[in-house]
Design a protein that fits this description.
This protein has helices at about 5-15, 45-55, 65, 70-85, 95-110, 110-115, 130-145, 160, 185-195, 245, 285-295, 305-325, 350-360, 385-400, and strands at about 30, 90-95, 120-125, 150-155, 165-170, 200, 220-225, 240, 330, 345-350, 365, 365-370, 375. The protein has about 425 residues and is an alpha/beta fold. It folds into 2 domains: about 5-40 and about 300-410, Aspartate Aminotransferase, domain 1 (Alpha-Beta Complex), CATH 3.90.1150; about 45-295, Type I PLP-dependent aspartate aminotransferase-like (Major domain) (Aspartate Aminotransferase, domain 2). The protein binds pyridoxal-5'-phosphate.
């Protein structure tokens, strides 16, 4: 049996333990949902207050130049690029993930070799992909007169589905339910051989595990700013386009900030010759300020150490579940092998929703995902080994005392 003291000892030896001080976390909460909403960085409140009071309040519109608000999408894009193995000029921060998916999907489907090839009328995605990815593809296809067939396949069928009929594939690297990780290099290789393109959704990977966009020959990607990147609720998202494709792709949302010279106010749209063309309208300088603090929490954190700790945390959680909760019928649906496991674990249980509510009432915060999953995220910058021990111990108590059966845990909230 692993003791709580042994977990405290693991924290004492943890090379990343200092990073927890970068966050504002209550000691009475075990937060295992950083994969959904990253915790508040300690620097954010003061920086956002400064941006609001000084930059907006006193410097007013001068701040677009004086405080370089105008270049925040590029500046923060470069910071994200460092986390996902891309070049600084290949990532830009803009809009939401859903909107960026729309922009890139439409842009790829407008490429001359895709438009002109009557045999390339398939959009491939995974059946269990995050719904927004599928909805955006459906909506775009409708807009295009249902010219495409949206082909949804299971994870292990994606590689085979990437053939010469495919105009574009939309693949989420890490499954939001199971945490299964796709092999980007292998799928990119296959897509390239079939003359097609993959848009990667990195929402559950960036900041959680090493992502190597250049090394894996990835062409296109999008991702969230509010999960592992700690940018705050509804933080701006980002998109990545490999250098060689940047000027070949046209965004369908040709807004003024994507123009080569926005302040010429020309009547004709002329896209910028770089990532700026994927911008649309004016960004929120306040949201960008919060995202910047989120990204700064990764300063001087080696991604390899982060990954090592992430796997150690999930290994420990799984082991403790086996030791303490084996009698309660939880079934882990996440991969056992490290190579294909991301930074969260999900456990199936027929009463998953009520159990998660009862856990949250005891200040152990994870989340519930349909149809029957309790999901626990491990964010190595602030999750401690002792948190893992406390979480499993609390779950054991919730189950032993049937706490989850209380009436108040049976009704679904709007957000689960
Ligand atoms: C894989 C994936 N893509 C996209 C999103 C959300 O996109 P948006 O920020 O546009 O709501 C999520 C949210 O959880 C997600 O898990």
């Amino acid at each position: 049996m692993t003791t709580r003291e042994a977990c405290i000892e693991l924290d004492n030896q943890d090379v990343l333990s200092h990073a927890r001080a970068r966050f504002s976390l209550s000691e009475d909460v075990v937060y295992l949902d950083g994969n959904s909403l990253g915790a508040l960085p300690r620097a954010t409140s003061a920086h956002v207050a400064h941006v609001v009071e000084q930059q907006w309040g006193r410097d007013l519109i001068r701040s677009w130049n004086q405080h370089d608000w105008i270049n925040l999408p590029q500046k923060l894009g470069a910071k994200i690029a460092a986390l996902i193995g891309a070049h600084a000029d290949e990532v830009i921060v803009a809009d939401s993930t859903s909107i960026n998916i729309f922009k890139l999907l439409a842009a790829v489907l407008q490429l001359p070799h895709v438009v002109s090839d009557e045999n390339r009328r398939v959009i491939v995605s995974e059946r269990g992909n995050f719904p927004t990815d599928l909805y955006i593809a459906q909506g775009l296809n409708e807009l295009l007169g249902n010219k495409y067939q949206l082909k949804l396949v299971d994870a292990d069928q994606i590689e085979a589905a990437l053939d010469h009929t495919v105009g574009v594939a939309l693949i989420t690297q890490v499954d939001y339910r199971t945490g299964h990780v796709h092999n980007m290099s292998a799928l990119n290789k296959r897509a390239s051989a079939a003359g097609t393109h993959i848009i990667w959704d990195l929402s559950h990977s960036a900041g959680a595990l090493p992502v190597a966009l250049t090394e894996s020959a990835s062409e296109l990607a999008v991702g969230c700013g509010y999960k592992y990147l700690n940018g705050g609720p509804g933080a701006p998202a980002y998109l990545y386009v490999t250098r060689s494709l940047q000027t070949q792709l046209s965004t369908p949302l040709a807004g003024w900030l994507g123009h080569a010279a926005p302040f010429n106010f020309a009547a004709e749209y002329q896209p910028a010759a770089n990532m700026n063309r994927f911008l649309c309208g004016t960004h929120s300088a306040i949201s960008m300020a919060a995202l910047e603090c989120g990204l700064n929490t990764f300063d001087n954190i080696p991604m390899a150490a982060l990954r090592q700790k992430s796997l150690a945390l999930s290994d420990l959680f799984w082991q403790l579940m086996d030791e303490h909760c084996a009698a309660f019928g939880f079934i882990c649906v996440s991969p056992r092998e490290h190579a294909v496991r991301a930074s969260h674990l999900s456990f199936a249980h027929p009463h998953a929703y009520a159990i998660m509510q009862a856990l949250i009432a005891r200040h152990v915060i994870g989340d519930f995902r349909q149809p029957d999953l309790l999901r626990f995220g491990f964010t190595p910058l602030y999750t401690r080994f002792v948190d893992v021990w406390d979480a499993v111990n609390t779950l054991r108590e919730v189950m032993n005392k049937d706490e989850w059966k209380a009436t108040q845990f049976q009704t679904r909230n709007a957000v689960t």
